[in-house]
Amino acid sequence: MQTMQGKAHPIHALIQKTREIFLCLGFDEIENPLFIQEEDVYKQYGKEAPVILDRVFYLGGLPRPDIGLSDEEILKIKSISPYISTDKFKKILRNYREGAIEGDNMLEEMIKILKINSTQAMEILDLFPAFKNIEPVCNRTTLRSHMTAAWFLTLEAEVEKQAELPLKFFSIGLRFRREQKLDATHLRAHYGASCIIVDKNLKIEYGMSIVEKILNDMGFTDIKFTKKKATSNYYEQDKEYEIFSGGIEIADCGMYSRMALKNYNIPDALDVFNIGFGLERILMVRNNISDVRKVLYPQFYEDIHLSDEEIAKSISMLSVPETDEGRTLAGKIYDAAKIHANEKSPCKFLCFEGNLMNHMTKISVFEDEENKNLLGPAALNEIYVFDGGIYGIPEDVEKFGEEGKNIKEKGIKANLNFLDAVSNYFAKEIEDKVKEGPKGKFTFEIKMAKSPSDVNIIIKGRTKRFISNENKRIVLKGPVFMSVEVEIK
Predict the structure, then answer these.
(1) Could you identify which of 75, 137, 275, 432 might form a hypothetical disulfide with 253, taking C-beta atoms 3.0 to 4.6 angstroms apart as the criterion?
(2) What CA dihedral angle connects 239, 245, 249 and 252, to 10 degrees?
(3) How many helices (H) and strands (E) does the chain have?
């Protein structure tokens, strides 16, 4: 079979082009640190650091809990597998706490040392709330928000080598900023191309001529330098410039501050010129794209146009039974619940009794709380698509007001409703429980639905993106309150 040439992402095609430009101009490529200590931000920004740190991401991690075994927990572990050595499990927990076992190796170690299967290992871990209730702890390490934060560290290391001047380095990589919102001009991660020149008696005019040369090679001819009114603290006062093309800022440059350089043991005799390019911004200007999200993530922000019929077809169930018996069971649950939906509680109605996957099984729908209906008011909601939105509409459309009437009259009805989806969810859960083989009584329930997944419904990603981009709504929620009792004999 003939292999077709793959297509490069525009940002990485530009990165490669930018690398070639820098290399041809005699710059050496450097991989700058991605993790920056908080103290370095203070060294570079001084008194401005606190407000700068507001835009950075701090790193955090989950502390490893110190877990002991109570008599009750030992009994629960033995009920999962009576042959487990609690002493060996205690040693596993201790080694995990001390870092001798990595988190992603925990299950593997339990299976190997305790001679159990993966299902048993997960059930044992689920016994300990300490694993699930751990709160992340933040430290003083941040993610690089601008390449300059890393250049000072690189400068200190390179100048210490007493390398031959001039030093010319470039680095291309991600920068992370804690933007308060994501929109056409704001991303939390974006690519920057940055370079530095280090020499004695280095003039800013020389650096600006390098900027012009780089941008010319990128295809920009209309270039304007504008002195920044409020100079960043890591630049010398009045020696920071924004670079525009066609009225849009595409780069920034300037001479590093003597004070900031001194904090990294850079001799006063050396001057440092820095340039930083926003690569997404360059692509936006070159390709006449108005939304930066389309530059970096075209798969999520493509121009999508879907009809109501197409949206209706994209609505499906999240979980369905795998066997014919399970699918038949879903129908029986649906029928029993639909017939008795408005029966007053407490009540219980048999859905199925007999052989289910070689297990004698009895299944009922029930409601124990007094003076309720068997099903909650939203359980019988039908799904409609109208004007790009998805809605769960009750049988009594009066409860949904004029908007509901309009949706029901003019909308497209999907081939799926809440009760159908919920019945399939219960059937899948029962199917899994019967396969596991434990005997006894089990109950499954769905109470208040707040999202599509709560009623076992999934909207395909492309449709969700269309609805989000068009500011439409997905209203699949409400009081379902449906319960199923299962007895495996």
Answers:
(1) 275
(2) -30
(3) 19, 20
383, two tokens: 């799904």
SS (H, E, C) 447-478: EEECCHHHHCEEECHHHHHHHHHCCCCEECCE
Quote the CA–CA distance of 238 and 232 in Å, as a whole number.
9
Q: How far apart are CA 351 and CA 361, in angstroms?
A: 11
- DSSP state at residue 7: -
Instruction: Check if the beta carbon of residue 377 is closer than 8 Å to that of residue 447.
Output: no
Query: Which tens digit of pLDDT belongs to each residue from 386-436?
Result: 999 999 999 877 777 788 889 999 999 999 999 999 999 999 999 998 888
Q: Domain residue spans in the chain?
A: 10-58+141-300, 63-134, 309-488
- pTM value is 0.66
- Are the CB atoms for 66 and 83 separated by under 8 Å? no
Domain 10-58+141-300 is of which CATH architecture?
2-Layer Sandwich (3.30)
- Residues paired with residue 226 on neighbouring β-strands, in sequence order: 242
